[in-house]
Amino acid sequence: MTSRRRFLMTAAAASAMTGRRMSAAKTRDDGFPYSEFEARIARRDFRGITKDVLPTPSMVVDLAAFERNLNTMASQAKSTGINLRPHCKIHKSVEIARRQISLGAIGITCATIAEAELMSNAGIRNVLWTQQPASINNVERAVALSRKDPTFLFVVDSPLVLDWVEQAAAANNAHLRIAVSVFASMARQGIENGQPALALSRKVSQSKRMRFEGLMAYSGGAAHTHGWQKRRERSAADLAGVRETRDLCKKSGLPVNIVSGGSTGTYNIDHENGLTELEAGSYVFMDTGYAQIGSKSGDAVYNDFGNALTVLTTVTSVNHPNLVTTDYGNKANAKPSDKVKDKPWLQVTNQGAEYGGLAWKPGDPGPELKLGDRLEIICTNLDTSTNNFDRYYVAEGDRIVDVWPIMGRSGAAQR
Length: 415
Known about the structure:
The chain is of the alpha/beta class. The chain folds into 2 domains: 17-62 and 305-405, D-serine dehydratase-like domain (Lyase, Ornithine Decarboxylase, Chain A, domain 1, Beta Barrel), CATH 2.40.37; 64-289, TIM Barrel. Helices cover 31% and strands 20% of the residues. It has helices spanning 4-18, 37-42, 63-80, 94-102, 113-121, 136-148, 159-171, 195-206, 220-223, 228-238, 240-251, 382-386; strands at residues 58-62, 83-84, 108-110, 127-129, 153-156, 176-181, 210-217, 258-261, 277-278, 309-320, 323-326, 339-340, 347-350, 356-359, 374-378, 391-396, 399-405. The strands form 2 sheets. Strands 1, 10, 11, 12, 13, 14, 15, 16 and 17 form a 9-stranded mixed sheet that branches. The chain has an 8-stranded parallel sheet with strand order 2-9-8-7-6-5-4-3. A hairpin with a 2-residue loop joins strand 10 and strand 11. It is globular and about 70 Å long. The chain starts with a helix and ends in a 10-residue tail after the last strand.
């Protein structure tokens, strides 16, 4: 009968051949019983923790690529004189926001009041919430956060919402910082530029409870326009009305302290079009959604930032030709447009809530996938993918060196 030790040695040798299979080295004999995993994470003892022992599916951050991305964006902002207030909806992580601030970001942009509360309560200042409060719950929370954190600011694009906010501010003896959201080609928010935007800005500035900070305008259509020159032209056109509103406000004597907006796709363009600060978010990790838009250096590939985030998955069944099952399914936001890191011939497929698949054509390169193989998936859309996970495992190569909580089920009561 084969001894247990020989079995483990044989399994380890097979694992080394595939490069991604479950390592037999991570056993009780080697001093890392999995029962200790969560306790080790809680006390931040990452010794001996590698990708092999992580639960799947799970999110893994390539620390080197992540830091390169942060430094590239910070350097670009400094060289062009535009402020950086990056969007946290991509990462929903206080740890990442702090790193962005340490590299010169003036604050953080949030998509929800829950994100704003999380960031502000963690000590991050100059949080901008980009969706106006149109419910009693959100109005009261925005006013409460303004009282607690005088650096917090949020947007409005409706005189009616402004009335609601002013009434709540008066009732709670609060003072608010307000930016007017103006239209920039996306039909989801933003008051009409020109006189309507000027009138709303005046109304804000005339309130004893509010301070008019300036304008916010998001040109999302420009962000994914293919070709750098075409993005440049689209961004200029989308923000033309915003520049008009800015000039009208200044001519009327209103201070325009900020003109906020922009994106990862136009990060090296937005300073030309009147923006004073950049809300880019995807650059921290990057996803396949940006891969085809092209860079300033060439239209084929967008290579300004590297893929720093992957979803680690395990092959769980191999009963069909040219198809294996994984644990990266619909609940993890698996999409056919995802890519498998270092294995472009593999196609991500959907199998069910907790089941995904990887398919390939006969004759495609690469070794046959086997039970227990581990692969890393590059997501299509970071916003929705990170929303399904509780933490990031931060890696240097295969070694886990940190764990960062993701806001959501492990944090605030809502995502």
